[in-house]
Design a protein that fits this description.
single chain, six-stranded antiparallel beta sheet, disordered N terminus
């Protein structure tokens, strides 16, 4: 937005400068240039009697050279004839390029123009050109007398050479020729200054707002207040009727430069990420020292004191600029050249202004300082906004990255917490299982073993022995220790062969010939053992078989166990109801708990086949 605004303002200024009709040449026959006049210093408010005190002067007349330390009114008188090249019917005008501070114009003894107040507070027209219409009724063909009363101030009583008393050469000619020259001068001296000051004040307000919203970017606030202060001080160029007399206004304007320079130095240091407490205190002390020294020297030496302070201010800004550029070159190389061009240009303008104030150079026809510096400030503002936008974008990208990282870490923490919770539950469960297993082994196992060895009844002793085996199997499952699959196959084979052999049933057991190092979970071992026992019990009790084949298969991910007998099979009346008898439902349920399956195939006269498949 500001870049477009600054470009638009600059384009308007250039267009107006180019499109404005050219001024009439001084050698044009229709325009008369008066560069000599008689002058006399007097306090009279009417055309003075030019006596022996009358002095001939050349125009332009600079009071700092022709009337040092003079304060008050000076009358100028010149005679002229109607320009020979001008049409007698054309409206004639008097053009005064510069008169400081104010003037009244008389034609042939009649007042025809007043620029404002001639007593304090005097109207300040130093930057305003004047175009005075010459009434045709008062204008003669020959021997016209033009008189001007100029109210001005001595150089010693103002803070700037441009506001010292004086008057430029006079031009008399057709208004149609002098009007464009007057409009051009008015635009560059007043309108252009107002325009760039307004743009700069708007930039300053926005920068102040950004600085308040981003307290860590202090340089935005410093630059905002600097821009706003410069825009307000520029009002002295176009604000003609000040509320206080000249001495007070000069004192206030000169004193206002102390905080403005402090803001400039603080901006340069802050933008370079530098800070000095003693320097901040010194800059703050200047706020008091400047007005104090101005009061001390008095209004008669205001220009001298102001010149010293202005030179010191220029040195401070130049030193801060050099320090800023050195640090930027070392740490922010990408920001060096844009800021170097802008800041060096501003320092150059300050040096040029110092030369003008000391009379080392002629004043330019345009107020370069008041136009160029605000435009350079606007360029700095554009650069600051670019850097701020880039920083804001980087911060936004960093925030998004941080949010993604936080989400990732949060998910990891939640996952770890869930794993820790599961681990804690497993630890507690494992501890409780071991406690129960210990109780079963120490208490119930000891009692069952006592019954086995002391009971006189063979049946009771057998039941106690079976209960003891089941208890030991349950204890093994509770302890949770995995078992080598090869050891499990050996235990299963020994128990199966023993039980079927006691029932006079021949056993054909075949396992994989090679040894395997795969482990079987404790729960898998217990459940498989119970399934195999149930299958063997069914063969012994119900099948009437004489032969049983057992086949074991092992792959990388699966274990298979097949038990087949040559018995009478399952009766027809139980066909389709295998889950209701012979322990089939418990076998299938146990297999399902281990994520496996147990299939039963049977037919009358064909025996029974039980196929167990478990994942490893």
């Amino acid at each position: 937005m500001f870049k477009r605004l600054a470009f638009t303002a600059t384009a308007v200024l250039i267009w107006l400068a180019v499109a404005m009709p050219p001024s009439a040449s001084a050698t044009d026959a229709a325009v008369l240039v008066i560069d000599k006049a008689l002058s006399v210093a007097t306090a009279s408010g009417t055309p003075a009697s030019f006596t022996a005190a009358t002095l001939p002067v050349n125009l332009p007349d600079d009071w700092a050279e022709t009337r040092p330390r003079f304060e008050g009114s000076v009358w100028y008188r010149a005679s002229f004839d109607r320009p020979a090249g001008a049409d007698a019917r054309e409206l004639m005008a008097l053009y005064i390029e510069r008169v400081c501070s104010n003037a009244e114009v008389y034609l042939n003894g009649q007042r025809i123009f007043s620029g404002g107040r001639m007593s304090e507070p005097v109207t300040r027209n130093c930057h305003y050109p004047q175009l005075v219409t010459l009434p045709g009724a008062l204008l003669l063909e020959h021997g016209n007398l033009i008189e001007l009363q100029v109210q001005g101030h001595s150089l010693q009583r103002v803070a700037s050479r441009q506001r010292a008393g004086g008057m430029s050469a006079l031009k008399i000619g057709p208004q149609v020729l002098l009007g464009p020259e007057y409009a051009r001068r008015l635009f560059w001296n007043v309108t252009a200054v107002e325009l760039v000051s307004l743009v700069l004040a708007a930039v300053g307000c926005v920068m102040i707002g950004l600085g308040l919203m981003n307290r860590r970017e202090a340089y935005l606030g410093y630059f905002g207040w600097l821009s706003l202060t410069w825009g307000l001080l520029s009002a002295r160029l176009w604000w003609r009727d000040m509320p206080w007399d000249t001495g007070v206004m000069e004192f206030l304007v000169c004193s206002a430069f102390a905080p403005m320079v402090a803001l400039a130095v603080q901006f340069l240091l802050s933008y370079a990420d530098l800070r000095s407490r003693w320097l901040e205190n010194a800059l703050a002390a200047q706020w008091v020292l400047v007005p104090a020294t101005l009061l001390l020297v008095g209004p008669g030496r205001l220009f001298l004191a102001a010149s010293i302070w202005y030179a010191l201010f220029a040195l401070e800004v130049a030193a801060a600029t050099v320090l800023h550029l050195v640090v930027t070159w070392r740490h922010k190389r990408q920001d060096f050249w844009p800021m170097a061009v802008l800041l060096v240009s501003i320092v150059g303008m300050l040096v040029f202004e110092q030369a003008l104030q000391r009379g080392l150079d002629d004043a330019p026809s345009l107020p370069l300082m008041q136009i160029a510096v605000p435009l350079l400030f606007t360029g700095i503002a554009v650069r600051l906004l670019q850097v701020f936008t880039r920083t804001l974008r980087a911060a936004e990208d960093g925030r998004e990255t941080l949010e993604a990282r936080v989400q990732q870490i949060t998910a990891e923490i939640e996952q770890n917490f869930a794993q820790l919770a599961e681990l804690r539950v497993e630890q507690v469960t494992e501890k409780e299982r071991k406690r129960i297993a210990g109780d079963l082994h120490d208490d119930l196992g000891a009692k069952l073993l006592t019954i086995v060895h002391t009971s006189e009844s063979e049946r009771i002793s057998t039941l106690a022995r079976e209960a003891l085996e089941e208890m030991r199997l349950s204890v093994r499952g509770l302890t949770g220790k995995p078992m080598r699959l090869a050891d499990a196959l050996a235990d299963w084979r020994a128990e199966t062969v023993l039980r079927l052999g006691q029932a006079n049933i021949e056993v054909d057991w075949r396992s994989p010939p090679e040894e395997t190092d795969q482990l079987l979970p404790a729960r898998g071992f217990v459940q498989t053992t119970r399934i195999l026992r149930e299958a063997v019990s069914n063969i012994i009790k119900h099948s009437g078989a004489s032969h049983c084949k057992v086949r074991c298969t092992i792959s990388d991910r699966q274990f298979g166990l097949t038990v087949q007998d040559n018995g009478k099979g399952i009766p027809m009346e139980l066909d389709g109801k295998l889950d209701r008898g012979h322990g089939m439902s418990s076998m299938k349920h146990r297999a399902k708990q281990m994520q496996g399956q147990c299939l039963v195939e049977s037919g009358p006269g064909y025996g029974t086949v039980i196929r167990l498949t478990l994942p490893l």
